[in-house]
Amino acid sequence: MATTRKYGREHQVLESVIALMVILVACIELCDAATVVDVYRLIQYDIGGVPFGSRLSSLNHHAGSSPFAPGADLSRTVVVVPVRELNISFIREYITQKQPLGGLLFLLPHILNSENQDYASGGDHHVKEIMRGTFLELEQLLIHSNIPYPVYFAFEDDNIDAVLADIKRTDATGQPATATTGGYKFVVSAQEPRKVSSPTITNIQGWLPGLKPDGETNQLPTIAIVATYDTFGAAPALSVGSDSNGSGAVALLEIARLFSLLYSNPKTRGRYNLLFGLTSGGPYNYNGTHKWLQSFDQRLRESIDYAICLNSIGSWDNELWIHVSKPPENPYIKHLFEGFSDVAEELGFKVGLKHKKINISNPRVAWEHEQFSRLRVTAATVSGLSIAPELLESTGGLFDRRNFVNVAAVISGIKLVAEGLARHIYGHQGKKIQVFADNSNLAVNPSYVKSWLDLLSQTPRVAPFLAKDDPLIVAFKKELADHTREINVHNEILDGLFTFYDSTKSKLNIYQVASVTFDLLLLLVLGSYLILLFSFLVITTRLKAHNCIAISFELPEMNTRPVFGIEIPWEV
């Protein structure tokens, strides 16, 4: 029994030592957690089954900075790229040539963070345009590529700037971070992305009925004011689209508020119905607008005199554009353009007319009004953009932030559309009558415009990740209900051409990693200590066991009594 106890003690000591060594080895690499950073994953989606974007989400590699020497093995390296220092050729080479990377982390300027409350829209226009061009080129490259490794975005701050400075110092020695040299390890623990099932798009409409004259039996004509409100960008969790198309959605709400004041009084109610529509699915060929129009009965569709779509009216300088599908010679288009031109001249800027004929056989539409034109409804888009964007372009990307939207530009766009509509409704064409004059009770409210613009500039609105009961949808519905009647919400399933994946935002854990040389030295010292401790405990245990045996031999004989055939000591 003494021998069994001895070996039991030795076994327990051995197990304890082994456990300590396992814990030591497991913890030896990741020594100090340097910081934790919010990161936003590059969008992952399919078009017709063809994969695009970042196809992975988990990350566990050492960090390095660009550029690297030609031929460097980066298959287990997360390359950290401040966008301010972006070498687009390096990124394009690695992506287009499918060169292996452990991952990419792009650091965005802090000014682009929606939590940054400095909304000043001034600054060097030339610098803005350079940055805009850089972001647009990078974003288009990323969203139209199939990238087989994780790609994340983060905002610059003091912590990550300090980490990057250390990484650059290490890389400058010519020894990039590895398990041998130490450095920093970037870890993102995330589930594998899953498909978003049955992505929903939500359209919201409000109605201001016109005043029908006594004895009039015919249906009143309708003017539709429409704006898409959702966005698309390289990082869904960052796609706030302050200009595209937050500015258009804000303009629609303010125009609805202004006309609700006129239509609340029978004496100033116009003889036109006004239909307001906030539509979703704009980046995806205006899919929500298409489904919304399909929900109209024929009588309503035929009553629409024309539709005005509002798009990106917050970043223009001296000229807004009216985009149409019908020829400029068309009487409706000519009348519409002349009315808007007169108002623009009085407001001190210009409007230009751009005609783009649509191809009925091609399902691709560049502007929202083209969905109306396909149904032979006269329509136009008012926009600060002079040319039609490509698919998934100018839809609320990384650079489309509140800092670069001019509230005065949005207000001018609202005045143009509201005054132009009012002169048409009340027959004031050619007359310099300002219905919504400044300093009147019908003036545009800058505080209202700014507050809604600020809200949308902090709210990502990529449709597949925007639930039909999202607080923003509820807020839109409530706001339209305050100014219009017969609010209707249409929830539709986004057409199956697009497939989206979740896992859009994660936490990046940055660990400072000691070099293997240090690890081995530490392991040797602690290992030697544990071996000495183990030897001491074993020797001590054996001496105690030997003394116990010696004492047992000196004990006097004991009387025993057999119990069930076993000799049991009875007394000494």
TrEMBL record:
The keyword Membrane applies. GO terms for biological process: regulation of signal transduction. The chain crosses the membrane at residues 520-539. The keyword Transmembrane helix applies. Belongs to the nicastrin family. It comes from Dillenia turbinata. It is a single-pass membrane protein. It is found in: Endoplasmic reticulum membrane. Keywords: Endoplasmic reticulum, Glycoprotein, Membrane, Signal, Transmembrane, Transmembrane helix. This is Peptidase M28. It comes from the Eukaryota. One of its GO terms (cellular component) is endoplasmic reticulum membrane. InterPro entries: EF_Hand_1_Ca_BS, Nicalin.
